């Protein structure tokens, strides 16, 4: 799921015109060594915090059907996670960096949810809303200053971008549907103890028994034939 969120963000920023202007969108850690090797205008979205939204944790299991409408699996509910990115702009001059960061900010604040056309993999299959919050308050993620200190770099203007995305639950295959009817055998015994040939009880209209003794299933909605017992009067 994480790499699918990365791809959706890359596509979103690419649609804002960054790619056509030659700006790279990367997800590297902006360490001091990385910054020294950078040679082109770059927007860096560094993922530094992942937390589960336990308030949205569900229970039970959902059903998965194939194209013919048959139940093929049962899946546990998705679990929601909050991914926090540190988004920075890198260029040769601070003015150019601020211009890039302003372009990124305008793109992200205009988007509350990632469009479905940008989602891939399990995010696209689930069809659930992936929300986006840019430069918002109230996050429990580490402060930007702490992140820069951990990276060993100098404090730089940045945007905190939080994405709330679902992680698909585990799927368990379901048993195949029943395709054969029920077959019952009844055997009577003489007073001598010898058994009479077995008799098969089956639904009226069922097909002839096969070599394994199975009969074809009756049509849906058809009532089973009434078994005649000894002593019943003939009509």
From TrEMBL:
Composition-biased stretches (Basic and acidic residues): 188-199
Pfam families: Pvc16_N
Ranges for domain SecA family profile: 1-235
Feature: compositional bias, Basic residues: 225-235
PROSITE patterns tied to this protein: SECA_MOTOR_DEAD (PS51196)
Alphabetical list of InterPro entries matching this protein: Pvc16_N (IPR025351), SecA_motor_DEAD (IPR014018)
Region of interest (Disordered), residue spans: 188-235
Protein name: SecA family profile domain-containing protein
Organism for this UniProt entry: Streptomyces calvus
């Amino acid at each position: 799921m994480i790499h699918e969120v990365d791809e959706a963000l890359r596509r979103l920023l690419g649609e804002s015109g960054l790619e056509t202007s030659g700006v790279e969108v990367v997800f590297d850690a902006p360490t001091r060594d990385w910054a020294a090797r950078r040679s082109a205008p770059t927007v860096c979205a560094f993922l530094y915090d992942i937390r589960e939204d336990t308030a949205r944790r569900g229970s039970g299991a959902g059903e998965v059907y194939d194209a013919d409408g048959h139940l093929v699996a049962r899946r546990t509910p998705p679990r929601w996670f909050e991914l926090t990115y540190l988004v920075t702009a890198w260029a040769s001059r601070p003015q150019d960096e601020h211009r890039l960061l302003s372009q990124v900010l305008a793109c992200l604040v205009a988007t509350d949810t990632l469009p479905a056309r940008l989602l891939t993999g399990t995010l696209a299959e689930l069809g659930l809303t992936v929300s986006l919050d840019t430069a918002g308050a109230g996050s429990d993620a580490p402060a930007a200053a702490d992140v820069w200190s951990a990276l060993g770099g100098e404090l730089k203007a940045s945007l905190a971008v939080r994405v709330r995305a679902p992680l698909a639950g585990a799927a368990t295959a379901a048993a195949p549907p029943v395709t054969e009817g029920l077959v019952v055998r009844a055997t009577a015994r003489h007073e001598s103890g010898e058994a009479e040939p077995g008799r098969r009880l089956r639904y009226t209209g069922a097909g002839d028994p096969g070599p394994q003794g199975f009969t074809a299933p009756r049509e849906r909605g058809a009532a089973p034939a009434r078994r005649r017992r000894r002593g019943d009067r003939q009509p």
